[in-house]
Q: What sequence folds into this?
């Protein structure tokens, strides 16, 4: 099954169709396939070339992603990055050796490496769509075959050795080389430009197929030796006393003076079992020490064990010593664990809950987010809408100036700030906001990330008491204390996260700190990414073709035929991928002040119908709808 991969590592088709505004799906509209493959599978990031610049920028900590990787991977990557961090700090000329790049690629790479978003120029090599997993290193093509014997002949482009792991381009199976020959003679290793014969190979093999070395035995052995040498345990001293007809007493103390977590811990345990006089085989000190030393799967090892043992004793069950050992080690572990604590910021736990903050369960305000604005629609005919959220990009585009102004003149309108605000966009954002405030009758802003704090302070300073601030669901508020902090900062209303289940929502809305609204309808964004699937880049460039400006709808279709809507943003080169299903919930049981409706392609007529359905305490039914996470536990 393919569920071993995350969604980003699965195959997709990029398709488009003409936008006809049909709701909710355009199943009958002709479609065009623009691309296919592992379209979301990014190459692994390699930042070696940028270490000096990152250090100069003030970076104090570097994180290596090792999720689902082997210890050998972690050891190799750590060793190489440590080497170049030291070089960057030494003041010596900084140059990355090709040997080290190859070792990094050998332990893991997806179609080579990428500099990610570290470079200032557009990265057109961010994604590798041919294969989602480890590529290894290319070592040659099949020159000829002896299929009956399972022998493959290769003109090597790189070294190869017994114990290395290889894979053929049309095969998913990995093979460990156990037979390597030159002119019929067995050899332990071979070098580039040699014609070698590899034995015991089979499968879907053809002359000309590429061969990749997936694993290097030499590199793996070196990595294992490096981390096995550094494996350290907490040293313990123990004393155990066994006397006739008396409980066994085990005392254990730590001698890890350099680690404050384990300093000065002393524990003592007494067994319920008692030794008795032996009739044939008395227990000896060696057996007792052997049992106590069984600590291989723990953090601990005994540096010293003192045994006080009376003569000629028999222990009915050796499990008694094992139990004493386990209890002592557990107690030391939990004592050390209890010493790990964080000092939390001091919060004013007196929540500002009063009569004015309680929300009227029967009267609901309607907030409408128009993700996609349509010039031909007359939004003034919207019914029962109290306020509209309009994405900032529409105020920056003269094409939509007329329809945006009509919306602002008809409804209280808030600028919907983007979830991602890239550094090179901040000046433009501030410029557009200032111009919008001067041109349009704006009531406030929907704040989508915590980084907008300085923006809020600036707006409050320049325009005192003129605008309201609404916290978007992307702030991911899960408790009342966070609500209180955001309210004190100036947030008037918070949109609850669509990730919350019904139980959590009910708890958050039981005694609300501030006004709250709930998304009751709309496609939920699954991902916002700094990459354009149409231009295949993380930054716009002049010759991309600007498909994003065409009057078309774009989708990712997965291997099951499910389609996920894509909305590109050419201003920041940020693409938003939406859920394949539309969230529609019956929110009548939740004590919120506002219902929010998130619209993509719906017409004004459809919007009015949807709002009326929800206000009647109903939800839209059908296979294209979901109630989101209401019935899921967080």
A:
């Amino acid at each position: 099954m393919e569920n071993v991969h995350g969604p980003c590592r699965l195959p997709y088709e990029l398709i488009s169709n003409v936008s006809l505004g049909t709701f909710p799906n355009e199943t009958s509209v002709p479609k065009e396939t623009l691309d296919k493959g592992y379209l979301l599978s990014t190459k692994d990031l390699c930042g070696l070339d940028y270490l000096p610049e990152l250090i100069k920028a003030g970076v104090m900590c570097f994180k290596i992603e090792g999720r689902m990787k082997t210890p050998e991977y972690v050891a190799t990557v750590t060793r190489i990055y440590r080497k170049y961090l030291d070089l960057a700090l030494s003041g010596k000329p900084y140059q990355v050796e090709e040997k080290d790049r190859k070792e990094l690629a050998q332990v893991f790479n997806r179609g080579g490496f990428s500099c990610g978003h570290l470079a200032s120029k557009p990265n057109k090599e961010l994604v590798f769509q041919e294969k989602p997993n480890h590529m290894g290193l290319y070592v040659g093509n099949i020159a000829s075959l002896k299929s009956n014997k399972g022998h493959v002949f290769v003109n090597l482009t790189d070294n190869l050795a017994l114990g290395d792991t290889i894979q053929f381009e049309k095969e998913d199976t990995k093979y460990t080389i156990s037979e390597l020959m030159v002119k019929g003679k067995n050899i332990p290793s071979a070098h580039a430009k040699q014609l070698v014969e590899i034995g015991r190979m089979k499968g879907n093999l053809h002359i000309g197929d590429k061969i990749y070395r997936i694993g290097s035995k030499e590199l793996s052995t070196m990595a294992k030796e490096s981390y096995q040498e550094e494996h350290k345990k907490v040293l313990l001293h123990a004393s155990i006393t066994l006397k006739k007809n008396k409980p066994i007493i085990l005392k254990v103390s730590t001698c890890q003076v350099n680690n404050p977590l384990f300093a000065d811990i002393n524990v003592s345990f007494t067994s319920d079992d008692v030794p008795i006089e032996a009739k044939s085989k008395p227990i000896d000190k060696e057996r007792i020490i052997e049992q106590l030393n069984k600590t291989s799967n723990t953090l601990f090892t005994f540096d010293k064990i003192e045994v006080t043992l009376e003569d000629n004793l028999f222990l009915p069950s050796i499990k008694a010593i094992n139990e004493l050992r386990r209890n002592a080690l557990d107690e030391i572990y939990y004592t050390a664990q209890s010493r790990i604590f964080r000092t939390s910021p001091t919060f004013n736990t007196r929540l500002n809950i009063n009569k004015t903050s309680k929300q009227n369960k029967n009267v609901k305000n309607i907030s409408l987010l128009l993700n996609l604005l349509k010039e031909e629609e007359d939004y003034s005919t919207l019914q029962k809408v109290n306020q509209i959220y309009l994405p900032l990009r529409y105020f920056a585009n003269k094409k939509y100036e007329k329809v945006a102004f009509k919306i602002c003149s008809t409804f209280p309108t808030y600028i919907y700030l983007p979830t991602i605000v890239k550094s090179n966009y901040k000046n433009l954002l501030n410029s557009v906001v200032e111009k919008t405030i001067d041109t349009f009758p704006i009531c406030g802003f929907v704040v989508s990330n915590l980084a907008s704090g300085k923006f809020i302070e600036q707006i409050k300073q320049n325009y005192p008491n003129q605008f309201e601030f609404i916290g978007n669901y992307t702030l991911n508020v899960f408790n009342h204390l966070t609500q209180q902090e955001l309210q004190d900062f100036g947030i008037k209303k918070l949109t609850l996260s669509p990730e919350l289940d019904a139980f959590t929502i009910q708890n958050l809305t039981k005694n609300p700190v501030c006004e709250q609204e709930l998304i009751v309808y709309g496609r939920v964004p699954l991902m916002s990414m700094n990459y354009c699937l149409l231009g295949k880049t993380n930054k716009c460039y002049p010759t991309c073709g600007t498909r994003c400006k065409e009057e078309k709808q774009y989708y990712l279709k997965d291997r099951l035929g499910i389609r996920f809507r894509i909305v590109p943003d050419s201003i920041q080169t940020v693409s938003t991928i939406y859920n394949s299903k539309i969230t529609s919930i019956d929110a009548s049981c939740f004590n919120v002040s506002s219902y929010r409706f998130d619209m993509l392609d719906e017409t004004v007529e459809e919007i009015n119908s949807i709002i009326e359905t929800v206000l009647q305490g109903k939800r839209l039914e059908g296979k294209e709808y979901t109630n989101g996470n209401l019935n899921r536990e967080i």
